[in-house]
Structure formats: structure tokens, C-alpha cells
Amino acid sequence: MNQDIETISMPVLGMTCASCAVSVESMIGNQPGVDHAEVNYATQTVKVSYHPDQVKPEDFQKVVQSIGYDLILQQEGAKELQEETQRDHYEALKKRMIYSAILTIPVVIIGMFFMDMANGNYYMLALTTPVLFIFGQNFFINAWKQARHGKANMDTLVALSTGIAYLFSVFNTFYPEFWHKRGLHPHVYFEAAAVVIVFIMLGKLLEEKAKSNTSSAIKKLMGLQPKTVMLIAADGEKEVEIADVRIGDQILVRSGEKIPVDGVVYEGSSFVDESMITGEPVAVAKKSTDKVFAGTINQKGSFKFRAEKVGGETMLAQIIKLVQDAQGSKAPVQKLVDKIAGIFVPVVMMIAIITLGAWLLFGGEHAFTQGLLAMVTVLVIACPCALGLATPTAIMVGIGKGAEHGILIKDAEALELGYQVNAVILDKTGTITAGKPEVTQLNWADDTVADKDSLKGVLMALEQASEHPLAEAIVRGLKSEGVKPVMVTDFESLTGMGVMAKFEGEQYWAGSHKVLKGQSIKVSDTLQKQVDDLQQLAQTVIYFTNSKQVLAIVAIADQIKAGSAKAVEALQLAGIEVYMLTGDNEQTAASVAAQVGIKHFKAEVLPSDKADFVKQLQEQGKVVAMIGDGINDSQALALADVSIAMGKGSDIAIDVAKITLVSSDLQQVPKALRLSKLTVRTIRQNLFWAFIYNLIGIPVAAGLLYPINGFLLNPMIAGAAMALSSVSVVSNSLRLKFAKLI
Hints:
Layout: E1 6-13, H1 18-29, E2 34-40, E3 45-50, H2 57-65, E4 70-71, H3 78-113, H4 120-135, H5 137-148, H6 154-174, H7 177-180, H8 190-214, H9 216-222, E5 228-233, E6 236-241, E7 250-253, E8 262-268, E9 270-273, H10 275-278, E10 284-286, E11 291-292, E12 297-300, E13 303-309, H11 315-328, H12 332-362, H13 367-381, H14 385-404, E14 407-409, H15 412-417, E15 423-427, H16 428-432, E16 433-444, H17 452-465, H18 471-480, E17 489-494, E18 498-503, E19 506-511, H19 513-519, H20 525-536, E20 540-546, E21 550-560, H21 564-573, E22 577-581, H22 586-596, E23 600-602, H23 607-619, E24 624-628, H24 634-639, E25 642-646, H25 651-656, E26 659-661, H26 668-702, H27 706-709, H28 715-734
Parallel strand pairs: 15-22, 15-24, 22-23, 24-25, 25-26
Antiparallel strand pairs: 1-3, 1-4, 2-3, 5-6, 5-7, 7-13, 8-11, 8-13, 9-10, 9-12, 14-26, 16-21, 17-18, 18-19, 19-20, 20-21
Helix pairs in contact: 1-12, 3-4, 3-8, 4-6, 4-8, 5-6, 6-8, 6-13, 8-28, 11-14, 12-13, 12-14, 13-26, 13-28, 14-26, 14-28, 17-18, 26-28
């Protein structure tokens, strides 16, 4: 994207249907200087890419206000302000709906049971007028604002249908003789107009309530951060607001408290529940130099740590942002639905006019009355709410469900494509393996080796002084056993071989097999067999010797993660081909592939080779998922149909990937693909019912069944059905919350 283009996301107020979203999108998108505008009806937000030297956000607000909507321009606390506005809107809508219902009930009773009541029409007129033009005035105001710009939305349909029914009824109330002279009874439809307003308000009320539930995952994540922290200052401890914490501040966390920001422990130790990040229920031990993360919960003990990341930079804040951005992104199918919704209202208006015309031509004795009623019913039943909600509500719930399981979906397209994946490429280091060498075995040459504890101290002293990358793993392993280094002298680093030093007059070496050749030390057959077996498993062997014999061997390996083999098996059982690509040597690659059950692998590949392999599989017609954790994987991640990064990997890999596994556990991959399948199935169910509802409802409303069995759909029933369709779509999406991903 050009550097002179800025992107801003703003909450939209006042949208009532998918056509509203299309109107807002097109009005902003047509502004000079706007590169791209995308409205998401479910999240009630608009994302705009624009040239700041040509247009300002204030201009977007003006043009949106001209068609009856509004934008929240302030970025700080915008979501909270939107939620507050929506709550106020919900409460106001509820009051209007209740008052409308109170006035409508007597209208229905008179219209349905006391049609011949003296002055009944006048009573109904008096009760219906405030329902339409006081409590339901927003429908007419918004429809007028849309019409001024040559646009139409759900409000247009509601205003036209109820307005026509009302005006027709008013005419029949004051001029009944017009119909009497023609031998017809002047019917009134005040109850239909009033009930349609009430039912649509009720549908919108239920829809608002249901939609608020879809963002509960974000609310839960936001609730993980405490409001205040205990700051350690020069004058003692003091409680401050979370917003006042700065990088470098020293913070005290007591037992049972939530960790407020990301940082590094410098004093004390404890166990921390990191299930929010890893998904693992077992608490993690924390001591000096260990990292801690915002939102995790301190279990036992207290500790002090220095703040490293605060505010929007913490891992928790990044997770929340990823989820919010993803819930606001559109799946490819939604873009098609938006196009349909954009032409849907004008098409329905055309069908309504054709319906009236057909009744006037072929309707017989009561053609005009019944034709008008059919036209009103078509306008009522065809409100495109269900169509507009079908995809975004399922996407929102699906992304929220993923977040609960530590699967962060940054783009709705990845969620839609995931179930089609039939080839998965895995990086080795950091993806299948932990990406951190660890000591797997420390085997003494034989039982005659005396004073092993002292010798461990010598080995630790040698490796502490070594600069070799594997030395750190040995030091870490010995330290975990409580070994303390001894004081050695005459330390020397032997390039390409290892290290040497003296302890109590004896020389000791630690290094590769070249150390043995240099000292002409032989290895026993038993020990050599152990070495061969370890090397077959792609483990590196370090020899620890004195001047006379090999004292011990240390095996080091990049450990395969506990869940890697199970994940590969689950993918293969689902009919997905699994490939492993690594820059490591052939022997190590073969060993790791064999241990986790991967049949296809490539060793010694460069980053560009990984990208080329993705292309090769795509050219074979495969839908490819690439899973990696490093900068070297980013090129392949960008090319893959579905890109998945490990949460403990590089920032670049995470930025490029569309899905991030917070726990870096490969067993989350089958879960992510399963979530995609469930979400897409829900979208299809929603779209099926939304389309079927309109395909059946509109012809029936137009009077298709009237010549067959005399059935003509009442506008009141149409209003109730329209409201129910929106609620059913949202409710079906919410079922995803309770689905199992295994």
C-alpha cells in the first residue's frame, strides 16, 4: 500500500440492514481521495483507506449523516462509545416498541373482531397514527434521506408498505362512498400497518440482543486485564490505574492477582496460569528473568517484575486487536451477498409494483384492494435483514470461538477457505520441534566413573565458558538438576573441536568426536553403540573426557513437541497430505519425519524453495496451508491459501499469517480446520434459509396461491415472519459457540 494512504476503522451508528451497509459503503467509497471502503454490518464498523491530503474523516461523517447514519470519529474509546450508544438505542427502541404494542393491541382487537363497531375506523386511525409517525417515525425519516440520494434500504420497504396501507385506510375511512358506489366494501388495514411496525421493531430488538452476544469473546478477553496495578515507587508501594503504567515501571503481583502488563520477573517466584495464551491448564513456574504476560493469573507466591510492553503493545491487547480486525473482515461469500443486498431492495420494489399491476389486470372484483394488500405484503416480507446477517454473524461467532481456543484468525477469508485445505506444509524447527535445543540424555561411560557430582560441576564450568550455541543447552540442563560450577583454570577454546580446562591438576575436554582424535582416546563398543543410536535419532553427541578416557556423553536435540505426531495423524486421517520442509540436513529431516509419521519431506531448502513448493502444489490444484514460525517461512506463508503462524514464532511470520496458534501447538491445526468447516456450514445454512425464505415468501405474498386456494398472506403475518427470519439466522450462528472442535 502507498505510504500516502492511511487506513481508519470507525464505528457506524444507525444501520438497520445489509442494504444500509451497502449505502454507507458506496457513499464513502465514492468520495474523492478514498481508495477503498468496507462496511461490516455485523460489527457495525467501516474500514476506509484514503489519501489524507485529499479527504478527511470529517468528510465521511458528513456524507454518511446526509443519508441518516453517523460515524464515531474518535479512536480512543470508540468501541466503548459505540456500545454505549447501541445500549441507549436498544433501550429507546424497546420503549418505542412497548408503547407501539400497547396502542396496537386495541387496533388488532377492533380490526379482527369488531369490524362493524360504530366509529371503529376512527378509533383505529387515532391509535395507529402515533404508532407510525411518532414511535415509528425513524422508518420514514431514514427512507426519505435515502430517497434524496437515490438509494433504498429496509426502512424504504417498511415506510412504503405501512405508509401505503395507512393512506389507503385513511381514504377508505373518510370516503367510504367511493367504494360503495362501485359495489365494494371499503376495507381498512390500520391493524396491518401498526402490527408490521411492532413486529419489525421486535425483530430489530431481538437482533440487537443476539448480535451483542456474538462479540462476547472480545469482552471476555478485555475482562482479563485488571483495572489497577500495585506500582513499586521510591516512596513505597502505591495503587495506580492501568493506563498510568509506563515501560520500565516495577510492579508487584500478589497471589491470585491478574498480571496487568507484559514484563520480566526480577524478584520472587511463583506459578502462573497461562491458559489464556497456551490453552494448557497446568500453571507455569516463573522465576527471575522469566517473561510474564498481561491477562495471565498468578497462582501461588508473589513476585516483582519490570514492565516491558504496556497499553496496546501487550500480547493481550494484540490478541484483542487481531480478533476485532478479523471479526470486521469480510469473507469472499459476504462480498457477493453485499452485491445482492445492494440490488435486492430496488428489485423488491419493482416486484411490488408488478404485483399491483398484475392484480389490476387479472384480479377481478376486488382487484385494487387485494392488489394493494399484496403489494404491501411483498414490501414487508422481503426485508433483507436475514440475508445481510447470514455471513457476518457466523464469521463473528467462529472467530470468537477460535479466540477462546487460542486460535487467532486475522482474516475471514482464511476461515472460509480452511475447510477446503487438502495439503499442509510444515516447517520443522519451531513448528514440529520446540526450536530450542535441550539435553535429552547424560550417559556416563561406565559405573567406574567416580565422584560424578564433582564431574558435573567441571562439565558445567567448561560449557559456561564456551561460546558454542549448544553449550547453553548443557548449562540449562545441569542447572535444572541443581549443579553448581566448580572453579577451573587454564580455559581454552579449541576451534572446531570444543573446549578444555584444568581442575585440581587434571585436564578435561568437552566437544565433538574430534576431541577424541586429538587425545587418541578410544570409545568402548558399548558407548559407541549408544552414540550410533542417538545419531540415528538426529541427536547431537557431545563427549566429556579427561586425559585418559571418555567420562560421559551428552545427547542434545531439538525436541519434538508432544502433540506434533498426533496432529500429523489427525490431518492424515482427514485426508490431508502433510509435507515437511526444513533447512536442516537430510539425516535430521528423515529422523524427525519418521518420528512424527510424515511421508513427504524435503531437507536443506531455502526460504525461496519453500515458496516455490507452495506454488507447485497450488498448480496441481491443491488448497495449501503453510504452517511456520520464522522469518524464513514468511514468503511461503504469504503465498499459501491458508497461512498459520506459531504464536511463539517471529513477529514477521505472525504479521504475514492469517491464523496464529497462540500456544504453538500443532494439535490446534486440525481444530482450526474443523472450525472453518463448522463456520462455512453455518454460513451455508444461514444463506439457504435466507434465500429460501424470500424465494417462497415473496411469491406467496404477491398472491401466487390465491387462484389455487384463495389464500392471501396478511401483512401482519409477513411482518412476524420477517422478524423471525433475522432472529433464526443469528440464533443459528450462535449455535457455533457450543460446537466441539475435536
